[in-house]
Amino acid sequence: MVEEVKVAYVFPGQESKQVGMGLDLYVHYNSAREVFDEVDRTLGFPLSRLCFEGPEEDLNQTINIQAAVLTVSIACLRAAEEISERTLPAPALVAGHGSGEYAALVAAGVMQLSDAVRLVRERGRLMNEAGRRKPGGMLTIMDIDKDTVDGICLTTGVEISNINAPDNIVVSGDDVKLNKAKRLAQVKGARRIVPVRVSGAFYSSLMDPALEGMINAVSQFKYETPSVPVVANVTAQPMTTIEAIKEELISQIIHAVKWQQSIETMLARGITTFFEVGPGDILTKYIKRISPGALTFNISNAQTTAEIVRWRKGGR
C-alpha cells in the first residue's frame, strides 16, 4: 500500500493574469462553467468574457484582475474535483499569494465564492484608489538576498512588499524612492530588476488610505471556521479562527506577502507535495527556488487538470 502524501493547495494572485485564462475549462467542464456563471451573476457583468477575450487593458485593471484570477482558480479546483470524481487528496494546509488568499478561503470553506469575489473586487477598488491618493509602484529585485534588500530599504525608504523566494524580493514605494532603490540594487549586484505592472505600491504603508474601507468591507460578509488551516501572508502561520482571518484580510494590504516563509512553514509541518491551483505556474517556480526537492503540480487548465488525475490514479 502506497503511503498517502501530505498535500497543500496554493493559489496565485494577480501576477498570474493572462487573457484567455479559464476558457478551456469553461468549454470542457460543467463545474468550471458553473463557477464562471455564478460570478457573472454575482457581479452583474460578464467577468468571464474579460477572462476569455480581454481586452487586456480592462482585464488588468485592479478592480477586475483580482476577482478574475480568483474565479479562474476556483474553476480550476472544481474542474479537478469533477474529473477526478472527488478523489483528489485533501489538503492539510492551504495558502494564497496576495489576492490568492481569497481563493484559499473559498477552498477552506471560510467564504462562499459569491461573497469572496465581491469582497476581493472591493479590495481591488480600494487598493486602486489608494494608489491614486498615494502614488507609487513595485519593483522585483532578483539575484540578491534579503539582507541586502533590507539595506537598500533602509537607504532609500522603499519597503519590502513580497518575499517570494530567496532570490526574488519585491519592494514598494513612490517613484523617486524606487528609482534610487533600482540604482542601488544594480550596484549591489542585482542582475534583473523588473517593474511590476500594478496600479500602486501594494503591500506597503502607501496602501494606508484603503484600510478604513477594508475594515468596513470585511465586516459585511459571513465567514465560517476553516475546514483546513489557512497559512497567512502577513505572519506565515496557519490561521484556524474567523477572527484571525478577518484581521489578516485587513492588515494584509499594508504588509509584505511572506511567501517564502509560508512555504517554509508548510514544509516544516510535513507538506511534501504542492498543488498550484490557478492560472500560470509562478508559485511553482517560487516553491522550487525555496525547496528544490518539493513535489509540485499545476492545475491551471484542462490539460494540467487531466495530468493531475492521471498522477492520482497512478497510485498516489
Features:
single chain; 316 residues; alpha/beta; Malonyl-Coenzyme A Acyl Carrier Protein, domain 2; Alpha-Beta Plaits; 6-stranded mixed sheet; 14 helices; 49% helix
Description of the molecule:
The structure is a single chain. With 316 residues, this protein is α/β, with parallel strands linked by helices. It folds into 2 domains: 7-132 and 204-313, 3-Layer(aba) Sandwich (Malonyl-Coenzyme A Acyl Carrier Protein, domain 2); 136-196, Alpha-Beta Plaits. 49% of the residues lie in helices and 15% in strands. It contains 14 helices and 10 strands. The strands form 2 sheets. A 6-stranded mixed beta sheet has the order 8-7-2-1-9-10, with helices on both faces. A 4-stranded antiparallel beta sheet has the order 4-5-3-6. Strand 9, helix 13 and strand 10 form a beta-alpha-beta unit. Helix 2 (30-43) packs antiparallel against helix 5 (62-83), helix 2 crosses helix 7 and helix 6 runs antiparallel to helix 7. The longest helix has 22 residues, at 62-83. The termini are close together. 50% of the residues are buried.
Please render the helix and strand layout as text.
Layout: E1 7-11, H1 23-28, H2 30-43, H3 47-53, H4 56-59, H5 62-83, E2 93-96, H6 101-107, H7 113-133, E3 137-142, H8 146-156, E4 159-165, E5 168-173, H9 175-188, E6 192-196, H10 211-218, E7 230-231, E8 238-239, H11 242-251, H12 259-268, E9 273-277, H13 282-290, E10 295-299, H14 302-313
